[in-house]
Design brief:
The longest helix is centred in the N-terminal third of the chain and has 29 residues, at 47-75. 74% of the residues lie in helices and 0% in strands. It folds into two domains: 12-165, Ferritin, core subunit, four-helix bundle (Ferritin, Up-down Bundle); 179-325, no CATH class. It has helices at residues 17-42, 47-75, 104-128, 132-160, 167-194, 196-206, 209-234, 245-262, 272-297, 302-325. By secondary structure, it is mainly alpha-helical.
Length: 326
Amino acid sequence: MLGFALRPQKRFTDLSEREILALAITLEEEDGRIYRDYAEGLREHYPATAKIFEEMAEEESEHRRRLIELYRQKFGEHIPLVRREDIRGFVRRKPIWLTRPLGLEAVRRQAAEIEAETGNFYRKAAQHVTDASIRKLLVDLAETEQEHVALAEQLERVHAGGERGKEEVEHARRRFVLQFVQPGLAGLMDGSVSTLAPLFAAAMATGNSWETFLVGVAASVGAGISMGFAEALSDDGALTGRGTPWVRGTVCGGMTTLGGLGHTLPYLIPDFWVATTLAVLIVLVELWAIAWIRARYMDTPFLQAAFQVVVGGFLVFLAGIVIGSA
């Protein structure tokens, strides 16, 4: 994940009123289709919740109809294709609606995130436009989306008998995951895995603890700077509620550096093989921690997360050993 490769995107502040309406139409269509997929996937085990998502999908269709009607009045019949991935500030959604069976907790959490993101978009868009009729419709839709957020956050508590706690607790947890856990996990994964190859290649090539330590520090710091800037530049947080870009960038960059330094610090030990043995043990602890965090916060089964992380880490580790021994 090193580097600054970012797909071309347009800034939200550069959108015209015509493009804002076109984007809103696309968002409502996409959200409505996702909710219908939720309903289909939940129908067997959670028929009442499936009915709620069907009703939410119908509301999204009504929103889209109102937007199209206003667009035609203002700009004519042709609606340009403006998608969420074309605009800086939106994040890519994990397509959990394609999996079966659907988990109620994961669906509820993502539905709340979808509605919060769309509501933020409408509020920002209403501040950006000057046409009174467009602004009124956007404000009305923002208020409706906020009602959907509250509804989505209540779904799991309805079926779990209130065991998940109050709405404020869930809201705080979601913000914590968006602003700290996600960028921190991305950084920890990159720092722990991507630095394995240069570190152990240097170790096998030199057989010297100090020289290996210098390579590890350089790789860790370089990766931290790269990941920090990439995270900060990917999303300004205005539409997604993910927090300020520099906070996320600092978290991501710091965790990237920490992930690399974890298995680098043992090479301060002069005895090369003692240092290498300790470094390998620390790598195993790091990979376990990454798997646990993914299972705890990202709705990934622990064994699946552990398998993915361990296999990826082992391949990078093996590449470093082979290259360093050549």
